[in-house]
Amino acid sequence: MSVSDRNDRNILSTSLAQLGVALLYLLAGLATNYFMTDHGVVSRVWPGAGLALAALLIGGRRLIWGVLLGSLLLGALTLDSLGAVLGFTLVHVLQGLLGVWLLTRRARSAATLRTLSDYLCLIALGGALASLVGALLGPLFLLLTGAIAAADYARYAYYWWMGDVLGVVLFTPLVLAWWRPGWALLNARQWLEGVLLVGLTFTAGQIVFLDWWQPYLTDFPKGYVMFLFVAWVATRMGTRGTTFAVLLIAAQALIGAYLETGYFADELRSAGLANYWAYMVALSVVGMALATYVSQLRRVAQQLKLKDAALNVAGNSIVITDKDGRIEWANPAFSQISGYSLAEALGRNPRELLKSGRQDGAYYRAMWDTLLAKKEWRGEMVNRRKDGSLYDEDTMIAPMLDAQGTITHYVAVKFDVTERKRLEQQRLSQSRRIEELSHLLVQAQERAQRRFSRQLHERTSPNLAALRINFDNIARASSQARETPEFAERVEDTRALIADTTLSIRDICAELSPPLLARGQLISALQSCAQLFAKRTGLQVRVDCAHDAVQFAPELEFALFHIVQEALTNCAKHAQASAVRLRLQLAASPLRLSVIDDGIGFDPAQVAAAGYGAGQGLLHMRETAEFVGGRLRLVSVPGSGTRIELEI
Prior knowledge:
The chain is α+β, with helices and mostly antiparallel strands. 64% of the residues lie in helices and 12% in strands. The chain has helices spanning 3-35, 47-59, 64-78, 82-104, 116-129, 131-144, 153-179, 188-210, 225-259, 267-270, 274-313, 332-338, 342-345, 350-354, 361-372, 418-476, 485-512, 515-518, 522-537, 554-575, 604-609, 616-627, and strands at residues 37-38, 42-43, 317-322, 327-330, 377-384, 390-401, 407-416, 540-545, 579-585, 592-597, 631-636, 642-647. The strands form 3 sheets. Strands 4-3-7-6-5 form a 5-stranded antiparallel sheet, sandwiched between helices. Helix 4 (82-104) packs antiparallel against helix 6, helix 7 runs parallel beside helix 11 (274-313) and helix 16 packs across helix 22. The two termini are 69 Å apart.
């Protein structure tokens, strides 16, 4: 829909609303002038005032044009002079605008009728106070046009004010209550109750105001009995039912007055509806005040019920104590976390139930100093459950104050942070281990560099130096010298040096990354590593493997190989063993690998206590195992050898 289409629809709806207000105002005015005016001049009940105020509260000041049009039409049909018509219209327009201004100037919510204060403001400001404008100006225009005498000004001003006030009292709440959106669907019981209440109210009104069953109810109580029925309707049916019941009673009482029967039989002759006016104002105010107050209490009760439900389903522990710290209420989360039922906790101090001894007296004194200073306190506590286990809580405690600023209660909201702290501790531990591993990796790289540098220096570098000398001598040898046996020996020595250098480089490369391992032959690579270790160290090495070759992911195979390599190196450096056994169970699940020696053994606890300086090879193996999802176990006793077991 385009902007112009929306504007056209808004103009149309506003115009229809203006016409509707004008028509309703006109019809109400004609009916009032026909039945209830004092010599065709002033009525003790003027519905137009109530309808105009309701229309302006609902639709805003823009509907004042509808009030103006309705008032002009009504004046044109009932008044004789143009001046009277214009004055009549001006008075009603000004009175409506003043009423709306008084009710909305401080953003009051009188139009909602949600609270007793809303209703009382509506009656006092929109009715009694705003009607003074009409009461002062309306009779003045009647006086100026000759409709009334000067001596009658005060009386008609009083009548005018009464009519407008009763119009506001009877009709403004009626329109506001029934116009308000949010109809609730009634069930069968509520419908039956509503029909019964309205029926009983109607029957009582007929008896009181129209003398039903007069011969049988000569002593039936009059007048005040209707207050009981209105109060009953107010407490059960709310503002909508109350406004309908009051209007029904007003119509019954007015009909009785004109028929000169019932409670107001002599009203027109003796009081000119003054008693009727007072009675209906009192009845309406009492009924509506009770209805709005009861509705307000119900909403408060519903809100409290909703808040109570929210507190009960909250995952955090919530505790309310009196000013001395004794528990008056706790939600189910408190019982779930602490292990104490609500019955066990009521009347007891949380310290009696939960104190773990981890906080000293100074901690609690500082907490109470903050609370007694009427400030919110936050902190962490270690508390004890009913079963004796400890848990961590992040606690917030706030004092509750009364109107005089005195502490009456304390509300504590507790967050169980045990799991969070465990995860934080785990994260810190992992961070430290990562830092250690990084340090060890750097050391391992430096160690490998030194080892390979030493190997190159001890084996390859001398060979290369000798080769250079030989090549220099060969290059300088004369043709006669090349025929000598010494030259042939030098050439043969050169070949031997080249072969030894090639073998050294091959050994170093095999130690770094065995060719068999690169081809996925893990078992063969481990057997080759064991043979090379035995050849280099002179130790007896036995490899036990009862299954065929297996193949794993490259990173797992390299990890297994380097763990075995590190274990054999440690055995050669520290174990003083004569034999080593390598046991492979790689086709099982979980796979297992063991390196067992018959050396002198050691105390693992002493190695762990020695810190960084000792056991770095073991730590490197453990970290490598964990990197591939395995677990390394070390078993060693001084004098009984060492066994390293890996399980993945």
